[in-house]
Amino acid sequence: MASLLAHIRIKPGKETKWEAIMQDMVKQTFATEEGVVRYEYWKGQGVNFYYCLLSFKDKLAFYHHQMSDHHESHDFAEVIADIKLEYIDPVQGAGGGLATTEDPALPANASDAQRKAQELFPLDIAPWWSARQ
After folding, report:
1. Radius of gyration of the chain (CA)
2. Fewest CB atoms within 10 A around its CB: which of 7, 73, 96, 131?
């Protein structure tokens, strides 16, 4: 599984456009992607600050999402001021049913899109997690 928490700051005045994009992204993601487990957007307390909880059955499903037509068709640069992707791992027995985040090697027959996604979005497994499994 691959789970992430995105920390997103939106440009001033772009909140309505951002939320419309997110509504479309959630709709398209659940309609067209089989590997999505969780995909939720939340407003934070900070002005123009949002969070996204994403979880996919594996990193290939995450890479498929990132390189999908519906993801690539939006102009995120127009609305996003800053974004940080933080890979997360559930606490056993308290993680909402999510499985451990894992980073297996790409298969030998990985597509060019999967290889590009691996370069752009490499999974970052915190070393201290293994002691907490």
Report:
1. 15
2. 131
